[in-house]
Amino acid sequence: MNNELAFVFPGQGSQALGMLADLAEKHDIVTATFAEASEILGYDLWDLVQNDSERLNQTDKTQPALLTASVALWRLWEELGGDQPAYVAGHSLGEYSALVCAGVIEFKDAVELVKLRGEFMQTAVPAGEGAMAAIIGLADEDVVAVCAKVESGVVSAVNFNSPGQVVIAGHKEPVEQAMANAKEAGAKRALPLPVSVPSHCELMIPAGEKLAVKLDSIAFNEPKITLVQNVSAEAVSDAAIIKKNLVAQLSQPVLWTQSVQLLSSLGVVKTIECGPGKVLSGLNKRIVKGIGAASIGDLAGLEAAL
After folding, report:
1. Phi, psi of 73, deg, nearest 5
2. 281 carries an active-site annotation
3. pLDDT value for 111
4. Looking at the predicted structure, is the pLDDT value of residue 232 above 90?
């Protein structure tokens, strides 16, 4: 085990049509992992991620697709003899990938869980009523303040992604009002995000209640690799607390900045992003100056990281 290494797992927004295609050509374990997920889901997940961008971006399809991509990469990393990390953490949905790779839950249970999580989130807020936006160039506390200034409806800071990059979510009009407030307060940019669900705000409490019922039916083990959960930015090993945090995570902020700062304080000097894209690698380098950040979502990245 490499005590200076953490594996980090991306969440929604990192999916891309054709992801992992170059790796699948060389390594059968990629398509085998997708075939396993397809059997549980009842549709061909590999075909979807290679050919159907519209369905790939529907949250109940995005979530199993990203989980499966991350688990396939983890299995491939292990097959090729890559270093075992001392820590794992996942951004939002990515926490479920971390749970599988740390041995907390079975892959088949995770596929079913994230499919339902996506459905619960989608039905919690009617289409078109929710929104999310990225606020660039304001301090965390200033983003919290511009949301608090909005007098009616729901809007709050929900993803503390890196210093100067915070995502807000809630009802559509309050989010738009908070975006305007942010620009007045000196934000460089306030960008609406192309999402169908306002994640990690109080509008997701009903989804969390449904998720809690499902989580109770699944066996959780103690993590074999130290797990940092992003709702608390703490290392957690107790199964009951892990479940409680997964429920809370749906309607409470993702503390990614604080989670990466914790990893650094525990001695981590390198993160490997185990999933498609390089979103977390970019954030991690902004959070901790000088941290090593590699990504293994394509053949070149994987070969460089091994």
Report:
1. -65, -40
2. no
3. 98
4. yes
* Exposed e or buried b per residue across 43-76, where buried means at least 16 C-beta atoms within 10 angstroms of its C-beta: eebbebbbeeeeebbebbbbbbbbbbbbbbbbbb
**200 noted as active-site residue:** yes
Residue with tokens 């809007």: 155
Extract the tokens encoding 285: 């380098």
Residue 17: its pLDDT value, please? 98
pLDDT band at 118 (very low <50, low <70, confident <90, very high): very high
The pLDDT confidence band at residue 281, using thresholds 50, 70 and 90, is: very high
CB 191 within 8 A of CB 134: yes
Domain boundaries, the chain: 2-124+203-305, 130-195
DSSP string, the chain: -EEEEEEEE--TT---TTTTHHHHHH-HHHHHHHHHHHHHHTS-HHHHHHH-HHHHTSHHHHHHHHHHHHHHHHHHHHHTTPPPEEEEEESTTHHHHHHHHTTSS-HHHHHHHHHHHHHHHHHHS-TTSEEEEEEESS-HHHHHHHHHT--SS-EEEEEEEETTEEEEEEEHHHHHHHHHHHHHTT-SEEEE---SS-TTSGGGHHHHHHHHHHHTTS-----SSEEEETTTTEEE--HHHHHHHHHHHHHS-B-HHHHHHHHHHTT--EEEE-SSSSHHHHHHHHHSTT-EEEE-SSHHHHHHH-
Mean pLDDT across the chain, nearest whole number?
Answer: 97
Q: Which residue out of 27, 91, 171, 200 is catalytically annotated?
A: 200
pTM of the model: 0.97
In the CATH hierarchy, which top-level class contains the domain 2-124+203-305?
alpha beta
Q: What would the CATH number be for the domain defined by 130-195?
A: 3.30.70.250
Confidence at residue 303, expressed as pLDDT on a 0 to 100 scale: 96
Q: Is the pLDDT of residue 127 over 90?
A: no
From 14, 70, 92, 199, active-site residue: 92
**Can you give the pLDDT at residue 193?**
93
